[in-house]
Specification:
mainly alpha, 103 residues
Length: 103
């Protein structure tokens, strides 16, 4: 009985250890969104960021970085609308200060 219990615990531990954690999965989605942004696919990058937020709510570091990327995406999507671009530029500055990146 004791051996069976140890076997079950070992199998459960191995199963849990082999799954990537939410932060790793969120970071992978963030990298994908960055690549989409770099290639000019702003709407798809935005959708990827929104999906990251829904699928991995505990990937806090990835979500923090995604805030800044989303600001940049929104600035690009607001091309031609000066008022929206200014709004998102100010939001980006606010977010940078809020995350302690700028003083």
């Amino acid at each position: 009985m004791k051996k069976l219990f140890l076997l079950i615990i070992t199998v459960l531990w191995a199963a849990c250890a082999s799954e990537p954690n939410p932060e790793q999965q969120g970071a992978a989605m963030l990298d994908e969104a960055r690549q989409l942004y770099a290639s000019g696919q702003y709407a798809t990058a935005r959708d990827t960021i929104l999906s990251l937020r829904k699928r991995f709510p505990m990937a806090l570091e990835a979500r923090k970085a995604a805030i800044l990327l989303m600001d940049s995406v929104e600035i690009q999507l607001a091309e031609g609308d000066t008022l929206k671009q200014e709004f998102y530029r100010r939001k980006l500055e606010h977010d940078l200060k809020g995350l302690g990146i700028r003083d």
